[in-house]
Design goal:
Length: 244
């Protein structure tokens, strides 16, 4: 069963929640595992609208609690019934200066409080052009290993999101995705003591047209979908596409 993760980013409204509620029949019939990541204020409305689906958050503090104005802790999310949290999205790394160490600390917080972190990694266009994609991925993964993040099945998800593919309409090719996912799989396999490794998602301009070819790639267990997850009809079609 493939995982379809919908990252709404700073988009959406109560009207969009209602539109997804109205399309419920699609979600009930889906053979994919669906995880929705709305902005914080829409978490509770979406939980009520889609009671049978996983609802995640897009961010979590790297601290346990305290004087961190504007932050939300893992324990608060867990109390609210949130199941997953995105950490290390490239927009957080780029616009909010989140380092590999901060991303790892967020993943640690999430796991300490029973949330599944969806840890995003990926190279920038300049990294790709300089042919250092694997070096960048290795640094991002090694920070998780060094911090003691549990890299095991159902304890986290790893999303490979090449930065140049996010929101550009230009998804990575199945060949590029295959190379990156094999590298990530082997890197984790050599460093994790887990018997079952985390599922790997691909993200970056996934849509109804390219989804099937992407989830057919070895070591791709699903997709993290931004723009296309805001279009109810398109997302509904994706939930009806079977991968297994
Ligand atoms: P996109 O975003 O599907 O709009 O490219 C993916 C993401 O940022 O997670």
């Amino acid at each position: 069963m493939a995982i379809l993760a919908a990252n709404w980013k700073m988009n959406g409204s109560l009207a969009l929640v209602q539109a997804f509620a109205d399309a419920q029949s699609y979600w009930h019939e889906s053979l994919h595992e669906l995880i929705f990541f709305p902005p914080f204020p829409l978490i509770t409305p979406l939980q009520q609208a889609l009671p049978n689906q996983y609802i995640g958050a897009q961010n979590v503090s790297d601290h346990e609690q305290g004087a961190y104005t504007g932050e939300v802790s893992a324990v608060m999310l867990q109390e609210q019934g949130v199941t997953h949290v995105i950490v290390g999205h490239s927009e957080r790394r780029q616009y909010y200066g989140e380092s590999n160490n901060i991303v790892a600390a967020k993943a640690i917080q999430a796991q300490a409080h029973g949330l599944v972190p969806v840890i995003c990694i990926g190279e920038k266009l300049s990294d790709r052009e300089n042919q250092i994609t694997n070096d960048v991925l290795a640094l991002q993964l090694q920070a998780l290993v060094d911090a003691g993040v549990t890299l095991a099945h159902e304890q986290c998800l790893i999303a490979y999101e090449p930065v140049w593919a996010i929101g550009t309409g230009l998804a990575a090719s199945p060949e590029d995705i295959a190379k990156a996912h094999l590298f990530i799989h082997e890197y984790i396999a050599q460093r994790s003591s887990a018997t079952a490794l985390p599922a790997l998602l691909y993200g970056g301009s996934v849509n109804v047209t390219n989804l099937a070819s992407i989830i057919a790639v070895p070591y791709v267990s699903g997709a993290l979908i931004g723009g296309a997850s805001l279009k109810v009809d398109e997302f509904a079609k994706m939930t009806q596409m079977l991968s297994d």
